[in-house]
Structures are given as C-alpha cells and as structure tokens.
Amino acid sequence: MKVSELIAELECYDGDAEVHMAYGAGDYWRTTLAPRVSRTFQGTVQKSEYHQTDRLYERDLDEPEDEEDEPVRRVVVIE
Q: Taking the model in full, what pTM does it have?
C-alpha cells in the first residue's frame, strides 16, 4: 500500500477515532491482537528469508555488506 492509498482509505472515517493495527499473535488460539498505533516513522526494511516477510533493517556499521543480502527499501512504518 502506498501513503496516498492509506490517506484515501482513512478519509472515510471519523477523524477522532482511535487507530489500531491488527496482527496474529501466533498462539494456539490464533488470537488477533490489536494494539493502538503510537507513532509513524520513516524506516528501512529488508526481506527476511527466515520469516518470508519484510523486517526492519538496522545494519551494524562495523558489519561488512554482503553482496547476497536482499536489497533494502525506505518505507513509512506504523507502530
């Protein structure tokens, strides 16, 4: 989703409504958690082969870059 698409989606809601984000807890009961959004920020993500999805990317400056690493992308993160 692009920022412009998110803005368009949110325009139809009450401007005073709380915003929460939903995600699976990964527990036995398949609970869907929905914590309140606390902030947004611009971050960097990279695909995690282990998780098969994007993860926040924070490279240690002492760590050499590996040519086989997945490319990184600048994104807006909702936390």
A: 0.74
SS3 of the chain:
CCHHHHHHHHCCCCCCCCCECCEECCCCCCCEECCECCCEEEEEEEEECCCCEEEECCCCCCCCCCCCCCCEEEEEEEC
**Residue recorded with tokens 């929460």:** 20
The partner residues of 46 in beta bridges, in order of sequence, read: 55, 72
Least Cα distance to 44 among 67, 23, 18, 75 occurs for: 75
pLDDT in tens, 3-52: 999 999 999 999 999 999 999 999 999 999 999 999 999 999 999 999 89
